[in-house]
Amino acid sequence: MVAGLTRKFGDLDVAEEAAAEAFATAVQRWPADGVPPNPGAWLTTTATRKAIDRIRRESKRADKQREAWMASADDPGEPGGAIDDERLRLIFTCCHPALAMETRVALTLRMVGGLTVPEIARAFLVQEAAMGQRITRAKAKIKAARIPYRVPAAGDLPGRVSGVLAVLFLVFNEGYLATGPGTDPVRPDLTAEAVRLARLIRALLPDDGEVAGLLALMLLTEARRAARVSAGGELVTLAEQDRGAWDAALIVEGHRLVRERLAAGVAPGRYQILAAINAVHTSARDARDTDWSQIVALYDQLVRLDPSPIVALNRAVAVAELDGPEVALAAVDRLEQRLAGYHAYQAARADLLRRLGRSREARAAYDRAIELAGNTAETAYLTRRRDQLAVAAEPWKTV
């Protein structure tokens, strides 16, 4: 709806607020009047009227009023690109090169992914107020610069796609491990939308290795969704998952994409390496059969492309399976200054300390991870592991 309103009115703020007002009106009226036969059409019509009303209120000029009335007509809008999809248009608008890369990602997560400002701030590890200001400034710049609402021409696509892939990766991650308070621990609506849009971009750029890599990564991760949360609402780690519950068709498709990229003989990018790591995981029939040496080698390759602390943390987790928890803990502790406020850092550190028998330190790290985690299933898992640690350390409490 926001994408369609943006096409009609050319203003992200108007589109977003009109959509929100339409849903608020539905909440008030539908319980009494009943749900209309076509809820989507009702919401779109109501939002369009709300947008027109806002423009009329804010404008004293007759030409602005005429623009609003003309926008309400059922016009076909601008012709699309190779694929005409409203949300794809909106992504490319938000990811315009006139905006800084981090701003493109944040704005698209808000406008296309529907994530809240706190959720986006957590994804970027920044303060909520700073993220809100960043998004507001981005919308204002799009309006002032008259950035067009369309999928770029074929010749411009390669230069625009990196920001779009970054957005889709973060949208997928929010669905894979939702951080919003009160939300379900897994949001299949977000993962499905990220996969759908990745497929569209692959159709636009079939020879782009990173597009194929991101799609493969999403498919191999999505394949495990049914096994990731227990019936009791607790996160199930990869080592403990029922591999028979994985989606075999998605795994086959993901592996095929990874093999295609390997056969291309071109140096892989970040998403292709991440997809290859997931291909190794999903190739093992049992967690004990995982080829950890290959995974560490892939992380070594990834670190050269992306020397971020989060990649280093994930590499350390893999090193623990190959060289032991003591070697891994030394690598994790070197990241403390940059990742101390990141829940996954504290969770990884807690697990390594537990494996080394350092129960008191492990308990403190679990407490910190629980405090930082926003996902209910992950919190439940961390709490159980911490409590098991307490019982093991003080067995007299079970008497």
Automatic annotation (TrEMBL):
<protein>
    <submittedName>
        <fullName>RNA polymerase subunit sigma-24</fullName>
    </submittedName>
</protein>
<keyword id="KW-0731">Sigma factor</keyword>
<keyword id="KW-0805">Transcription regulation</keyword>
<dbReference type="Pfam" id="PF04542">
    <property type="entry name" value="Sigma70_r2"/>
</dbReference>
<dbReference type="GO" id="GO:0006352">
    <property type="term" value="P:DNA-templated transcription initiation"/>
</dbReference>
<feature type="domain" description="RNA polymerase sigma-70 region 2">
    <location>
        <begin position="7"/>
        <end position="60"/>
    </location>
</feature>
<dbReference type="InterPro" id="IPR013325">
    <property type="entry name" value="RNA_pol_sigma_r2"/>
</dbReference>
<dbReference type="GO" id="GO:0016987">
    <property type="term" value="F:sigma factor activity"/>
</dbReference>
<feature type="domain" description="RNA polymerase sigma factor 70 region 4 type 2">
    <location>
        <begin position="91"/>
        <end position="142"/>
    </location>
</feature>
<dbReference type="InterPro" id="IPR046531">
    <property type="entry name" value="DUF6596"/>
</dbReference>
<dbReference type="InterPro" id="IPR013249">
    <property type="entry name" value="RNA_pol_sigma70_r4_t2"/>
</dbReference>
<dbReference type="InterPro" id="IPR007627">
    <property type="entry name" value="RNA_pol_sigma70_r2"/>
</dbReference>
<dbReference type="InterPro" id="IPR013324">
    <property type="entry name" value="RNA_pol_sigma_r3/r4-like"/>
</dbReference>
<dbReference type="InterPro" id="IPR036388">
    <property type="entry name" value="WH-like_DNA-bd_sf"/>
</dbReference>
<feature type="region of interest" description="Disordered">
    <location>
        <begin position="58"/>
        <end position="80"/>
    </location>
</feature>
<dbReference type="GO" id="GO:0003677">
    <property type="term" value="F:DNA binding"/>
</dbReference>
<dbReference type="InterPro" id="IPR011990">
    <property type="entry name" value="TPR-like_helical_dom_sf"/>
</dbReference>
<dbReference type="Pfam" id="PF08281">
    <property type="entry name" value="Sigma70_r4_2"/>
</dbReference>
<keyword id="KW-0804">Transcription</keyword>
<feature type="domain" description="DUF6596">
    <location>
        <begin position="160"/>
        <end position="260"/>
    </location>
</feature>
<comment type="similarity">
    <text>Belongs to the sigma-70 factor family. ECF subfamily.</text>
</comment>
<dbReference type="Pfam" id="PF20239">
    <property type="entry name" value="DUF6596"/>
</dbReference>
<feature type="compositionally biased region" description="Basic and acidic residues">
    <location>
        <begin position="58"/>
        <end position="67"/>
    </location>
</feature>
